[in-house]
């Protein structure tokens, strides 16, 4: 899987305190063909260790982003063909995944691999608190772990999506992904043969399946979804909808609060009735979108892609309203999405055909603890 005629880049990601950095250093120390690239360490040296440690979000702050990308590019530029660079703790956001694809994955002179480190939650917490005992980081460790788990899921989903697309278009662009479960200490590095990914547990692009402990982690029940883009969009959409609903003495929040209490409701209950209306309007907008993309392959006309985007946004407005009428705020929406994604991934892994489909495998998705009816 490593190439002797190309620059090899191993992007190392995974859970906080899963042993990523210590394993990389051990490998680099015993093989002069391997090089360690440590963006986090470089940021601490440049911007100050205290500033980095005091952040509850382990994702690099915006002011460090340009520095991190330049630092990685410089390191790869210095790499000789046949050598391997381990990039520690990168990428940490979907945007960084997109950037590295553009700069490295699509570069014919470079071969990319992802290592994903996972670890039992109890074990990694013990390691982390022992490591940071008595420092400023100790009080922030729990918040950092929760935020990092969310970031890792988004990164893994971006990787999985790109691998799935590549598999159907250009298999050469499928990036190998390897998972290392470091619940127990990795054997003495000196005892390992020259670094080969086949030494470890290899899987395909559906990497989220091997990280399912992230989805199942009990702490996720109390996590608030902090994607400001989605939360802000839904808040603005509610404000817009309220302007049209106010003459009816109704608000989106009133609909949401009523619906979020139940898994089943009467057909003419307010939230059900308004969901029906919002979905019908969304369908109308999608039909308008399709008119801008006519399937007339014999014609010389051009598709009005700009207008199609506008129609899609109009449909999204109504779908956000439908989501809120069904009881979902940004947090509920995100959790439901990730829960259904996990089911879909499992279906694909099982071979998604009728005879293999497990009835009821998504019955838990979108469910709430119902309030007793009076």
How would you describe this protein?
The chain is an alpha/beta fold. It has helices spanning 20-29, 39-47, 49-53, 62-77, 94-105, 121-132, 136-169, 207-210, 212-216, 228-245, 252-259, 270-291, 305-325, 330-350, and strands at 7-14, 34-37, 84-88, 110-118, 177-181, 201-203. The chain contains 14 helices and six strands. The chain has two domains: 7-222, Rossmann fold; 228-356, no CATH class. α10 (228-245) crosses α13 and α11 (252-259) packs across α12 (270-291). A six-stranded mixed beta sheet has the order 2-3-1-4-5-6, with helices on both faces.
Provide a quick synopsis of the model.
The protein has helices spanning 20-29, 39-47, 49-53, 62-77, 94-105, 121-132, 136-169, 207-210, 212-216, 228-245, 252-259, 270-291, 305-325, 330-350; strands spanning 7-14, 34-37, 84-88, 110-118, 177-181, 201-203.
């Amino acid at each position: 899987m490593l190439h002797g005629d190309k620059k090899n880049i191993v992007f190392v990601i995974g859970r906080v305190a899963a042993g990523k950095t210590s394993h990389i250093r051990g490998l680099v120390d015993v093989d002069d063909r391997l090089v360690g690239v440590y963006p986090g360490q470089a940021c601490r040296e440049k911007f100050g260790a205290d500033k980095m440690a005091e952040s509850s979000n382990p994702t690099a702050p915006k002011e460090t982003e340009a520095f991190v990308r330049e630092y990685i590019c410089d390191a790869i530029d210095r790499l000789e063909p046949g050598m391997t660079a381990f990039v520690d703790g990168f990428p940490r956001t979907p945007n960084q995944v997109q950037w590295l694809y553009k700069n490295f994955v699509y570069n014919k002179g470079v071969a990319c691999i992802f290592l994903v480190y996972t670890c039992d939650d109890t074990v990694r917490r013990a390691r982390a608190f022992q490591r940071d005992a008595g420092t400023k980081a100790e009080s922030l460790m729990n918040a950092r772990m929760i935020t990092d788990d969310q970031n890792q899921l988004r990164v893994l989903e971006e990787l999985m999506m790109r691998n799935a697309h590549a598999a159907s278009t250009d298999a050469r662009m499928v990036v190998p992904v390897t998972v290392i479960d470091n619940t127990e200490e990795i054997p003495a590095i000196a005892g390992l043969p020259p670094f080969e990914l086949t030494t470890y547990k290899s899987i395909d692009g559906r990497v989220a399946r091997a990280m399912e402990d992230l989805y199942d982690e009990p702490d996720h029940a109390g996590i608030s979804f902090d994607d400001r883009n989605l939360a802000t969009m839904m808040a603005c959409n509610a404000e817009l909808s309220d302007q049209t609903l106010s003459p009816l003495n109704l608000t989106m929040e009133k609909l949401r609060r009523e619906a979020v209490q139940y898994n089943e409701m009467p057909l003419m209950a307010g939230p059900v009735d308004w969901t029906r209306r919002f979905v019908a309007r969304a369908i109308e907008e999608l039909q308008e979108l399709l008119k801008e993309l006519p399937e007339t392959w014999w014609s010389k006309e051009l598709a009005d892609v700009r207008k199609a985007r506008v129609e899609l946004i109009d449909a999204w407005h109504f779908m956000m309203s439908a989501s809120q009428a069904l009881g979902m705020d940004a947090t509920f929406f995100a959790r439901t999405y990730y829960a259904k994604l996990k089911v879909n991934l499992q279906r694909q892994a099982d071979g998604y055909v009728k005879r293999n489909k497990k009835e009821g495998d998504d019955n838990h998705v979108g469910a709430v603890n119902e309030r007793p009816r009076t």
